[in-house]
Amino acid sequence: GGVLVDRERAERIRQQELAAELQRTLDDLRAAAPGSSMLFTGSGLALQPWPEGFGLSIQKAGLRHLALAAAAELRPAGVSVSLVTIRGTIEPGGPFDPDRLAAIYAE
């Protein structure tokens, strides 16, 4: 069954995927020093969920909202928080080639 029916699967997803990713993000944000910049890479799944990737969709939505909230909260302390949303698959030779993305981020 899907995650809405299979409660055990839903609980595992919640604990393993969502909590771990968001906790790492919170830890990074709490460690930010005044004058620093943080850039998070999000996914189009935050905007348009994918049923087969339910856990990842929730994780990316959580990351998006956490980054947007942190940007507003930390701005007065001189911390810049940005989020880039990639709506596609990151793969060598593809439209979202990791080397190309790295070069764009470095600009």
Pick out its properties.
50% helix; flat; two-stranded parallel ribbon; 107 residues; alpha+beta
Describe this structure in words.
α1 runs parallel beside α2 (54-74). The protein has 107 residues and is an alpha+beta fold. Helices cover 50% and strands 13% of the residues. Strands 1-2 form a two-stranded parallel sheet. β1 (37-43), α2 (54-74) and β2 (80-86) form a beta-alpha-beta unit.
Short description:
With 107 residues, the chain is α+β, with helices and mostly antiparallel strands. Helices cover 50% and strands 13% of the residues. It has a two-stranded parallel sheet with strand order 1-2.
Helix count? 3
Mean pLDDT rating? 84
Assembly annotation: single chain
Total beta-strand segments: 2
> Which stretches are poorly predicted, pLDDT < 50 over at least 5 residues?
none
Q: Using the CA coordinates, give the radius of gyration.
A: 16 Å
First-last Cα distance: 46 Å
**Topology as a string of helices (H) and strands (E):** HEHEH
Shape, per Cα inertia axes? flat
Tell me what portion of residues adopts beta-strand conformation.
5-15%
Q: What's the helix and strand layout?
A:
Elements: H1 7-30, E1 37-43, H2 54-74, E2 80-86, H3 98-106
Parallel strand pairs: 1-2
Helix pairs in contact: 1-2
